């Protein structure tokens, strides 16, 4: 099976100093790959580079056989990649419904929102609320729901558990696992919450100071005590 | 009492024009955080286009349509060629560039058409007809209300009912996130400038026949009134711009009616100072609308 996303030798920097060195990884269809590591390890930079928010860098990014270098950020979603940025990226001045519609707006005809509301009944209740009236958990659901409205094949998810209660984090992780199993959605999941991430991931990649320090099956990573102590802090 | 009624209707008619022009300022401020000080000059430029086209075709309405089309094109061009490249690290940059545009546009207009007043015809009679024995409204006033009302309704429908309107709002509020969702943010900015400039052109076409006539600086005074209206409305709020425009129109009408027309230009500035001192966020702005 050829990989859905293939990252090969990616080096990225803000200004002159590179933040990512020679990072390579693959994500298969229907696979959740967790990107782990301490603050400043380059996790968010990796996602931003993949979606073109950071300027072109050396290395190759191939999605479903297509080279993503030079693809404009606003075209990315048309390739089947949805990026939920850190801090959730809900447009707070728009309503829940408008945010969701925005996700699928580029598709013709526009996809129905009913399946999203079915997935997140809470959002259906708050359909006409403005983004800034939502709780943190609701915003995260909205951001994920909006990404799903684009019917992507790969979800880039940046710290979905940030600032959320453990119970809400658990719900979101369960939802991701369920989506993968039911629809074959692939997820590249950046998380500081290592336990949660490894509990649903198939593969794990550990970043340290911008380099890949380890890569293995999620279960093996969770069992590797030395690695956990050295890089993951538990 | 009759005089009061007359001044009220006259004020609302002027206020409608201020409202349209303030709306154009708000559209651009919301999308780019730039107060388009060049909007008056841009509107005058398109009024000259209308003048030339009407002169060539003999039809006021062909000229009118030409002004709106020229507004769309000029707005898009200004965004694409100039405003897109402004460094937003200081809010002053946008102001300086816009003021530079004013000088360029007014200079070029003066070179082409000369710095003299040209008579601008109104498409309808400006004589007020009597309602219940009181001369309140002219046919031209009715035209002004209808034109501004139509613009407000069309813009409202565009922004609240169409996918393009949703894209434009999202691009204005959250450009980075919008890009990730597939919104062509640059295109939305260009469209926003084009629409705003066309609305500005409409305001210019409506006001110039009621003033001294067509001149490269014909919109300077109107700009101050409309800017006051936009600030009064909070700069961020389209509804605020419309209400602010009507309020400024009424205030100026009463002042020039009861205190004399020569007081009016000073009164506009006075009103602007009062608004900035008393309610700098405007009547309708949500918190932290404005930092400069």
Automatic annotation (TrEMBL), chain A:
<dbReference type="GO" id="GO:0015658">
    <property type="term" value="F:branched-chain amino acid transmembrane transporter activity"/>
</dbReference>
<keyword id="KW-0029">Amino-acid transport</keyword>
<keyword id="KW-0547">Nucleotide-binding</keyword>
<dbReference type="InterPro" id="IPR003439">
    <property type="entry name" value="ABC_transporter-like_ATP-bd"/>
</dbReference>
<dbReference type="Pfam" id="PF00005">
    <property type="entry name" value="ABC_tran"/>
</dbReference>
<dbReference type="InterPro" id="IPR003593">
    <property type="entry name" value="AAA+_ATPase"/>
</dbReference>
<dbReference type="GO" id="GO:0015807">
    <property type="term" value="P:L-amino acid transport"/>
</dbReference>
<dbReference type="InterPro" id="IPR052156">
    <property type="entry name" value="BCAA_Transport_ATP-bd_LivF"/>
</dbReference>
<keyword id="KW-0813">Transport</keyword>
<protein>
    <submittedName>
        <fullName>Branched-chain amino acid transport system ATP-binding protein</fullName>
    </submittedName>
</protein>
<feature type="domain" description="ABC transporter">
    <location>
        <begin position="5"/>
        <end position="234"/>
    </location>
</feature>
<comment type="similarity">
    <text>Belongs to the ABC transporter superfamily.</text>
</comment>
<dbReference type="GO" id="GO:0005524">
    <property type="term" value="F:ATP binding"/>
</dbReference>
<dbReference type="GO" id="GO:0016887">
    <property type="term" value="F:ATP hydrolysis activity"/>
</dbReference>
<keyword id="KW-0067">ATP-binding</keyword>
<dbReference type="InterPro" id="IPR017871">
    <property type="entry name" value="ABC_transporter-like_CS"/>
</dbReference>
<dbReference type="InterPro" id="IPR027417">
    <property type="entry name" value="P-loop_NTPase"/>
</dbReference>
Automatic annotation (TrEMBL), chain B:
<dbReference type="GO" id="GO:0022857">
    <property type="term" value="F:transmembrane transporter activity"/>
</dbReference>
<keyword id="KW-0472">Membrane</keyword>
<dbReference type="GO" id="GO:0005886">
    <property type="term" value="C:plasma membrane"/>
</dbReference>
<keyword id="KW-0812">Transmembrane</keyword>
<dbReference type="InterPro" id="IPR052157">
    <property type="entry name" value="BCAA_transport_permease"/>
</dbReference>
<feature type="transmembrane region" description="Helical">
    <location>
        <begin position="12"/>
        <end position="29"/>
    </location>
</feature>
<dbReference type="GO" id="GO:0006865">
    <property type="term" value="P:amino acid transport"/>
</dbReference>
<dbReference type="Pfam" id="PF02653">
    <property type="entry name" value="BPD_transp_2"/>
</dbReference>
<keyword id="KW-1133">Transmembrane helix</keyword>
<feature type="transmembrane region" description="Helical">
    <location>
        <begin position="36"/>
        <end position="54"/>
    </location>
</feature>
<keyword id="KW-0029">Amino-acid transport</keyword>
<feature type="transmembrane region" description="Helical">
    <location>
        <begin position="94"/>
        <end position="114"/>
    </location>
</feature>
<feature type="transmembrane region" description="Helical">
    <location>
        <begin position="60"/>
        <end position="82"/>
    </location>
</feature>
<comment type="similarity">
    <text>Belongs to the binding-protein-dependent transport system permease family. LivHM subfamily.</text>
</comment>
<feature type="transmembrane region" description="Helical">
    <location>
        <begin position="142"/>
        <end position="159"/>
    </location>
</feature>
<dbReference type="InterPro" id="IPR001851">
    <property type="entry name" value="ABC_transp_permease"/>
</dbReference>
<feature type="transmembrane region" description="Helical">
    <location>
        <begin position="261"/>
        <end position="278"/>
    </location>
</feature>
<feature type="transmembrane region" description="Helical">
    <location>
        <begin position="180"/>
        <end position="208"/>
    </location>
</feature>
<keyword id="KW-1003">Cell membrane</keyword>
<keyword id="KW-0813">Transport</keyword>
<protein>
    <submittedName>
        <fullName>Branched-chain amino acid transport system permease protein</fullName>
    </submittedName>
</protein>
């Amino acid at each position: 099976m050829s990989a859905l996303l293939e990252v090969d030798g990616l080096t990225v920097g803000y200004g002159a100093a590179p933040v990512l060195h020679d990072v390579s990884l693959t994500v298969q269809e229907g696979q959740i790959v967790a990107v782990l590591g301490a603050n400043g390890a380059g996790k968010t930079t990796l996602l931003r580079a993949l979606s073109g928010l950071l300027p072109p860098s050396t290395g190759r990014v191939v999605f479903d056989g297509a080279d993503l270098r030079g693809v404009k950020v606003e075209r990315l979603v048309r390739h089947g990649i949805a990026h939920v940025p850190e801090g959730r990226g809900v447009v707070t001045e728009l309503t829940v419904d408008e945010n969701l519609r925005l996700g699928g707006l580029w598709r013709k005809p526009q996809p129905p929102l009913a399946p999203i509301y079915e997935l997140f009944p809470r959002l259906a209740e708050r359909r006409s609320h403005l983004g800034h009236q939502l709780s943190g958990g609701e915003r995260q659901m909205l951001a994920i729901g909006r990404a799903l409205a684009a019917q992507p094949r790969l979800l880039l998810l940046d710290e979905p558990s940030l600032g959320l209660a453990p119970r809400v984090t658990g719900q979101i992780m369960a939802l991701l696992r369920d989506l993968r199993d039911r629809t074959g959605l692939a997820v590249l999941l950046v998380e500081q919450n290592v336990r949660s991430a490894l509990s649903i991931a198939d593969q794990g990649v550990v970043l340290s100071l911008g380099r890949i320090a380890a890569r293995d099956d999620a279960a093996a990573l969770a069992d590797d005590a030395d690695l956990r102590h050295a890089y993951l802090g538990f | 009492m009759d005089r009061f009624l007359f001044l009220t209707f006259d004020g609302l008619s002027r206020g409608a024009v201020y409202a349209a022009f303030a709306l154009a300022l708000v559209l651009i401020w919301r999308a780019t955080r730039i107060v388009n000080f060049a909007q008056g000059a841009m509107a005058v430029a398109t009024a000259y286009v209308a003048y030339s086209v009407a002169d060539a075709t003999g039809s006021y309405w062909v000229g009118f349509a030409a002004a709106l089309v020229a507004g769309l094109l000029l707005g898009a061009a200004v965004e694409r060629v100039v405003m897109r490249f402004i460094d937003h690290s200081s809010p002053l940059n946008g102001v300086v560039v816009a003021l530079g545009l004013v000088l360029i546009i007014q200079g070029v207009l003066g070179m082409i058409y000369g710095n003299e007043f040209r008579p601008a015809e109104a498409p309808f009679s400006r004589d007020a007809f009597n309602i219940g024995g009181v001369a309140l409204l002219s046919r031209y006033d009715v035209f002004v209300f209808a034109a501004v009302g139509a613009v407000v309704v069309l813009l409202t429908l565009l922004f609240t009912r169409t996918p393009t309107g949703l894209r434009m709002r999202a691009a204005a509020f959250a450009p980075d996130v919008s890009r990730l969702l597939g919104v062509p943010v640059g295109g939305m900015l260009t469209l926003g400038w084009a629409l705003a400039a066309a609305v500005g052109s409409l305001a210019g076409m409506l006001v110039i026949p009621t003033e001294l006539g067509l001149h490269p600086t014909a919109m300077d005074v109107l700009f101050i009134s409309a800017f006051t209206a936009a600030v009064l409305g909070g700069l961020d709020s389209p509804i605020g711009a419309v209400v602010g425009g009507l309020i400024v129109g009424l205030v100026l009408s009463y002042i020039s009616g009861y205190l004399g027309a020569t007081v009016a230009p000073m009164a506009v500035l006075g009103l602007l100072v009062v608004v900035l001192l008393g309610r700098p966020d405007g009547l309708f702005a949500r918190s932290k609308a404005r930092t400069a």
